[in-house]
Queue: 2 jobs
Job 1
Amino acid sequence: MRAGSQIARDRGTDRFVAVVAVGVGLVFLGAGVWAFVAPRSFFATSAAFEPYNAHFIRDIGAFQLGLGAVLVLAVWLRDALLVALAGVAVGAVAHLVAHIVDRHAGGDPAVDLPMFGLLAVLLVAAAVVRARRVRS
């Protein structure tokens, strides 16, 4: 009897954990998309810390996308390294896109774009290699 009730409790706990992970992950993903796509609106509503900087808000969005991706992917993928690589790859790709969109706003595009591009490509490639290994 004890073993059966423990299994039922574990399933309930697992369900709770999965619901929290997906729910919070979706909140992060939603906020990330909002900050990335509409930085002025996000700033005015959620992050009114002067001075306004569209690129900084996009960076916040990029990293929220990565955090959200990690939480959501962790529910479906059982390999911790794959979850980490794929989630961080989402954030890295979004960060690269933010630097491409805002290349006129500052920084050093000649250095920033290749560096962030290389990081994004390496992370995506490592996630793909890991996914293939996990499947086999």
Note: Residues 35 and 46 are 9 Å apart (CA to CA).
Job 2
Amino acid sequence: MNAIIRHSGALFAVLAVALTAGPARATITQQCPLDTDGLDTDGDGNAADDVVCKHMIASDGFVNMADGKLLYVFGFSEILPGEALDMAVMEHTLGAEEPAPTMAFREGQRVYLTVSNAGFMIRPDLFDPHSIHWHGFPNAAPIFDGMPDSTLTVKMDASQPYYYEPIDPGTYMYHCHVEATEHIQMGMVGQLYVRPKQNLLPPGTPLGSFVHRAGQKYAYNDGDGSTRYDIEVPLQLDSMDPDFHDASEGVQPLPFALMDDRYFLINGRGYPDTARRGPIPNGYDGNFSQKIDSQVRARRGQRVLLRLSNLSVTKYFTISIQGIPMHVIGQDAKILRGPSGLDLSYDTNSVMLGAGESADVILDTTGLVPGTYFLYVTNLNFLSNDAEDTGGMMTEVVILG
């Protein structure tokens, strides 16, 4: 059956290439204006670099599960500066990444995000539009929110500019909001966070009893240095139902009511692939479709900021780390402070995240014995790659001496 599906996919691919060559194809475009207003909105001392441009393009592709299973996915990849836009569809078709490229911005920057749609190579019978929704982000303009009932969606071979002003630091996430259950399950998810202006303070600035040092980084504008960190590591939790993905690849009815995720992932990987460094090529065409590391590495004494998010459409997860206390400083892109400024951060040995939730967690490695620790889901039935044991949602935290 798999051979039939692959053969059918190849036939569809030939048809898609033929369609790509036709003269009726629209042009992929990008909106990226120059910063000419003379205002330093992000506070870095440079009035000409506040505008940031990103260009994401949607297509399909394949990713490897840690037990060797090859899954058909939808996803985004990034058109980088300097790439020829007239070649973007050809270059990024079958280029879906899981998760999508991480987007990180500074508070005060003005972001122009272009979303393009390359269509599906394996399923050219699908004409799904796409959008990007910044989940949890307080967007003042509904037209840029990505909700299909209040914004434009991006049809095949078309492009749509989005505009954002990130003024609230914290950990967010993004996903396609068209046919959201299907497209999120198929892999159209990514990590997103906003860094605070407090990072740009002059050295020697007092923050309560703490004094800011050159290069010191913070998760929030905390005013006292309590959210400082040395290394940040975004870890996106996700899960996939192989039957749903196989049905999509095989042009079969999609089993929404029977959706049962059996692969549990951190940054698109299951253990032991979570401990592999560097991008992973898929087993279909060799494209690097899983590019984001899942292993945490730090030197003893460093403070590690874990930016945790959950974009599973079916599961909640409880995350723990063997032998390392977790200090939770933020939840859903909000610093844990009361209305009067009361510190509500807390120490714990586990953090539970439902779908669409995020948490900012500090790991203080001072005094830890160098070695390998494990970050894992305490829902023990999720520590598997489908039916295989010792896999799933687990990764290594390596503390170097």
Note: The longest strand covers residues 51-64.
